[in-house]
Amino acid sequence: MTNDLTEATKKKRIRNPLKTRQHIIDAAIDEFTERGLDGARIDAIAEASQTNKSLIYRYFNSKEELYTASLKDTYEKLRASQRDFDLNDPDPMSSMRRLIESTFDTFAENPRIVRMITHENVLNARFLKEAMDIRSLYVPLLEKMREIVKIGEEIGVFRSNVDLKHLYISISALGYFYFSNMNTLSIVLDKDLSARKAVRVQREQAVEMVLAYLRR
Question: Where in the numbering of this chain does the HTH tetR-type domain appear (predicted)?
């Protein structure tokens, strides 16, 4: 019994630092998306995460290091939402449709992802350039896309010579641009682009635009 309690205590000690670190990152993402890197305050992150500055600096050496960790967390969530395991349909058209839909839905459901990516673009991808492990997140996706496109070519439903990286840019852009520019475009076009119907129409249009390009 004592040994069981000891093991449980050890596991709890191992888990708690991970949870605390994640709480800090979650609070940091809120702060960075609201104020940007320069405007973000460690005091505010400490208060939101119910920690303190000294504890935050125990996990992260600087605000920049915390920002990089938050950026990595953002991209990990984006990639996880694209659900590579759902892309094994024998019909390549269906697999590609799922990828387009899941990417669009991720931007629709996670405004923090949109804002973090926008802030990093304002910084000219300064921190993303140093985060080589973020790039590795996309290797499995590109390989899966390669498989899907190859099958589509072989059975005669997809065009040949598809540039996979540009294909992914198009898939991502059709969702990211819509949600990152939703507020300004709603005013310019005099249309509420946050309305469910508008989002649904844009989602289907994104799917059809990419599939129309791929069709032979």
Answer: 18-78
